[in-house]
């Protein structure tokens, strides 16, 4: 294969969001093209005007941009190419590879009912295939004159060799009776005109490939290489649905708090692998990706695995970038926007907030104590820790910390340890009520890091609110 000759495409229908399976298909197409120095194209298949929306188009483009799935050139809109699709159908009529069909909807319904009653495959019977006694006052559909003898073979790059008897393929409609092209015709014409060499898509399109080859062969066009990827299933092996995580890409960003590099890495490993490698950068993916490495079995989507992978990428991420993503989430939780100084504090806090988090929302939730108003609201567990002797102990801790002038982790820890030693208790017996008093919770970053981040004045004020 000539490197520069490779052209792949992603061709979503804009009837909804960019779903997770579509994103994986786009990723595989992009990686294959980049691996071979070729082009990755985008085509919006918006011929179904009743269901296609601008909102869905925007969501698809937004999702692809977020995932860094950047296509070459301008996106092609299939609806703008209808005249070209009609032109090809008329050329096939002229060459005898297609024919006029005057069967009415009522006749076709009756045919299907007869076939259903006889337990036969529901297939057009070719009743107008060889007729020329055309009525002058009636509209007609244009159908492909599919071969009836022999077989059609596809050497699929994922599925292997697949053979279908031509007797099983019907004369599909190319132009409807109102003159509009069908999806099956439009896809083939657009792939040819865009120079697509490799059609990489879900294996639910495998049957379509055999029918679409009838058009390609009739026109004498080069056949693309096909790679039909198994679909993604849920963790229980059932077809992927919303309960498994079959959400729009935007939901992984906005609702689940994922980073794009984590989603990319996870999708890459759904059905493809490179040895034992789990963490794979885009650069490595381009270098390693081979369509032959895609398995034939459906892969299982596991949200917990994605979250764990996201946790890795959160720990690796730049603190300022993370704070920029987390800030609006914190603002939503506390009911107000962060000030510039508070945003700067969030950046400083990131090294302490991100190590245990798996999502942006978890980081945001863990950061709220930094911006809480006094007196601090305590959750149930924190309130329980502040019963009994705890307020007295906190009073002693307050006084010890008030004497600290160098407000850094070392001197702070020394002062708290001194309180524990004088009380004859372990450090944890001081640290736990101290954490509850400073954060309103029983979990937080390290207590000395909490004190440093809150600052001397705020820390002492929060403790003073609770001392007796």
From TrEMBL:
It catalyses: tRNA(Glu) + L-glutamate + ATP = L-glutamyl-tRNA(Glu) + AMP + diphosphate. ATP binds at residue 242. InterPro entries: aa-tRNA-synth_I_cd-bd, aa-tRNA-synth_I_codon-bd_sub2, aa-tRNA-synth_I_CS, aa_tRNA-synth_I_cd-bd_sf, Glu-tRNA-ligase_bac/mito, Glu/Gln-tRNA-synth, Glu/Gln-tRNA-synth_Ib_cat-dom, GluQ/Sye. Its EC number is 6.1.1.17. GO terms for molecular function: ATP binding; glutamate-tRNA ligase activity; tRNA binding; zinc ion binding. A motif ('HIGH' region) lies at residues 12-22. GO terms for cellular component: cytosol. One of its GO terms (biological process) is glutamyl-tRNA aminoacylation. The keyword Metal-binding does not apply. It is found in: Cytoplasm. The keyword Protein biosynthesis applies. HAMAP family: Glu_tRNA_synth_type1. Monomer. This is Glutamate--tRNA ligase. It comes from Sphingomonas changbaiensis NBRC 104936. The gene is gltX.
